[in-house]
Every structure is written in structure tokens, then in C-alpha cells.
Amino acid sequence: MIIRFPNLHFYIEGVPRAFRILNMEFTMFGAMLALGLVLGLFTVYIHAGRQGKNINRILGAGALAVIGGVIGGRALYVLCSWKMYNGDLVSILNLRDGGMSVYGAILGAIVFVRIFSLISGTAFYETADVLVLGGAIAQAVGRWGDYFNRSSFGEYTNWFYAMQIPIADVRPEEVTDLMRENLVTDAGITYVQVTPVFLIESLLCLILFLWLLGSSRHIRYDGQIYLRYMTAYGVIRFACEWLRTDKLLVPGTNIGASLLLSLVFIVWFGIQGLVRSSLAKKREEIRREGEEKFYQQSDFQERIEQRIENARPEYTEQEKATAKAAIRERIQEEREAAYQQELEEKIKNRQENAGREKREEP
């Protein structure tokens, strides 16, 4: 079948739902999910190595996150689509034709990684900061599974990104009245013209990945990247869900399950991020106050003035300014080294005192 982007003059012929290797059939939906997971784990491996993390532990947590994601993603989808599986429970295990909830996958991954952190004694937030980078790129790639599956689309549109899908490939309940009013027939094939929500979400997830990757170089507290991902993805998914016509609904209601969970993510993780960021900022202010107090009690200021006075007299004003800046920078480095040394000595003394007290206990 052909999937077309008429306003972009882009036509793709022979878009398969599945393919065969050695007489075994694989769906393109599953293949794109697998490709996304492989790229995600590779990203985690590279990033963990650059940050000096324990790669084996991170990858172990990542593998469990994948398992938890598959279980959670399928469980939430089945729960919200129970009528489809009520009479055929065995079909719940058939993942080849799709049927995964992203939010279910995220929640399942969180549960499994938390269990791993408790058992291994690792810090959950520190691990999650690395894993969500892989999660973001996996989502950006995995969303293309919906392209091959002819799903995750929105209402009729004639914008430049409008996509046309053969109506025979779409479930009848997903075709709205507005789509039927604007059917397009070409070469004997009737198409529905829709909004490619999967493409919009894929691009937004790619932007989110790049933003998180840049933010990971300036982490102020453990969990910063994790909380930013959760909050930002909640915003992305909330916006995309408004466009979709094939929503998962909360059983017994007309409320979109992903819309509801998006609001929960935005509020819950957003508040956590604001609180932890505020605490990190406060700790930074206390540290700076401690440094200033240490500097004021030392002879650093006198040494700065002395070095400036000893600058070569034949310097021009611009050269003197440059020399002063260089001197201040060197003195600042000395300040920080001295302050760090004093902190390490205090910590060492406290540890020795604690060990001595423990030995003296009856």
C-alpha cells in the first residue's frame, strides 16, 4: 500500500506491516520498537561510560527497565481495551500486531528500576538520570512503528504535513465524520487524510533527547534529568493526545487515559523538580557563603593586592587589566583548592572520630 504526504509531494509505495526472515514473520511495529530499544541501550552505554558510572549496573537496570516497560505497556493497553481481549485471553500475549501504552511502559520501567535499586543498593535517581536519555531516543525511533501500523493519527487536516492512508488499512471506528467528508480517491484507492501525530511526537521526543543530553553536562542534583524528562514528556503527550482520534480511554468513561496520566506527570514530577531545584539552589548559596567566610578569614585578599602591585610597571593599562584578571583567576583557583582541602580534612576528622567512638562502645 501507499502512504502519501500530498502537500509535500512525498509518496511512499509498498509500506509493509510485516516482513519475513527464514519463513518467520515479523511486524514492522515490533521491529521499530526493537530498533528504538537497541539505540536506547547503546545511548545509555555511551553516556554511562562518559560520566564514569558503573556500566554493568546501569545496563542491568536498563535491561530490567525494558522488561518492565514491555509488561507495563501491554498491561495498561489491555486494561483500557479489555473488550478486545475479554473473550480471547491468549491474544494478550500476542504483541506482534501492536497494542502498547507508552505510559504503561514508563510506569513499568520505573517500578522495575526501583526494585533493582533497592536490591543492588544503588541510587535510583542517579541511575534514572542516565536511563531516561535512552528512553527518549527509543521513543523518538519507536514511534515510527505507528507509521507502519497505520495508527497514532489525528483528525482531518490540510496542513503541509497532512498524511493520506488507505481507508482499507484503518479500523472503521477510527474514521471520523470529518475524515469521511474529505475522502480522497486516486487510482482506484480511497484514502483518509489525517494528522500524522506519530511524526509530531517523534520529532518532539528527538528535541527532548537533545535538550536532556545538553542538560546532563550541568547537573545540579541527582534526579534532575529524570524529573525533567517526566515533566516534559507529560507536556508533549498532553499536546499530542488532543490531536489523536484513536485514544485509549479510561474503562467506563470517555476520558483519555493518556490525557489523564499526562496531567499527573506534569503536576507530580513538575512539583518534585521545582522543590529539588530550590533545595539545590539553597545548598549552593550556603556553600558559597561558606567559601566567602573562609576567604575573608585568610590572607588571600592581601596576596591579590601584593601581586597586582608587583606587576611590571611598563605594562599599558590594558595589559595591567589583563594581568589583574589572570592573577585573580589564579588566586581563585588557590582559594578553591584550599577550601576543598579544609573540607576534606574536616570530613576525615569526623570519620576518624566516628570510628573511634564506635570502637569505644561497650
Summarize the structure.
With 362 residues, the protein is mostly helical.
Low-confidence regions: none
Distance between the termini: 81 Å
| Biggest sheet architecture | 3 strands, antiparallel
Order of helices and strands: EEEEHHHHHHEHEEHHHHH
Strand numbers in spatial order across the main sheet: 5-7-6
Radius of gyration: 28 Å
Report the mean per-residue pLDDT as an integer. 83
- Global outline: elongated
β-sheet strand percentage: 5-15%
Number of DSSP strand runs: 7
Query: Helix segment count?
Result: 12
Task: Describe the model.
The chain has helices at 28-50, 55-80, 82-85, 102-120, 124-142, 144-149, 177-181, 197-215, 224-243, 257-296, 300-309, 317-360, and strands at residues 3-5, 10-12, 18-21, 24-27, 163-166, 184-186, 189-194. The chain folds into two domains: 3-283, no CATH class; 298-360. The protein is built from twelve helices and seven strands. The model has no long low-confidence stretch (mean pLDDT 83). The chain is mostly helical. The longest helix is centred in the last third of the chain and has 44 residues, at 317-360. The protein is elongated and about 90 Å long.
